[in-house]
Amino acid sequence: MPKGRQKVPHLDAPLGLPTCLWLELAGLFLLVPWVMGLAGTGGPDGQGTGGPSWAVHLESLEGDGEEETLEQQADALAQAAGLVNAGRIGELQGHYLFVQPAGHRPALEVEAIRQQVEAVLAGHEAVRWHSEQRLLRRAKRSVHFNDPKYPQQWHLNNRRSPGRDINVTGVWERNVTGRGVTVVVVDDGVEHTIQDIAPNYSPEGSYDLNSNDPDPMPHPDVENGNHHGTRCAGEIAAVPNNSFCAVGVAYGSRIAGIRVLDGPLTDSMEAVAFNKHYQINDIYSCSWGPDDDGKTVDGPHQLGK
To answer: Is there a domain that residue 70 lies in?
Structure first.
């Protein structure tokens, strides 16, 4: 027998079914009001409430700032406002949640209570700040896309060999997607009318240096069709969740194009391409270079540098 436990007198016979049932029902009726009371206030941890509630920031009238003193003030103030002090809000010193006592009330009565509470809190000298709590709309971050090619983009999310990718999904979950940034692809043009690029296309950051006009649309040829710049643009800023193709690594960014590789190229043309519309473009993407490694035989010349 554990210490501190009192022995229960032995009963010669077990309780009958009616007696047991009566005891269970009695316990249930005693429990229900207690549970309903918790549901009405929510408590300081859950802070859920079925009726109006207020967050209140108090400062001690005595100036000591002790939590015990603040707690007493909170209790008295909540009672004066016709509310219940549900306790401190997390670890925020001096911040308390006042809730309306449980019980259904007509809408007119609730509004009258709300006005009374606001008057009491606004007029109390210890209240530094108060705010009625409203329901907030929050959406879970998601990196699930309906683009058919996304499962094959192992460089973004490698499902077969987790970890062998560029680890960008965690950045997306923090809502960092390139929004507010314009990337310009300096290449053989950008087919900006296709479904994955058009919504993010930036015409104001684009130009065609080969044809000397504002439209960087590629000019297909027999050899390769000039698709390279368009593919690069898609890798950067392809629109997600449009049930088409793939997802860009910075799918929230704007994408521009500078067409310069579809014709004779000089040092001065490279220099223009590297700073064209720099007031708009934040990042210049150049996935090309000399035939060698870009420094042994040839590389950027004076103006390009």
So the answer is: yes
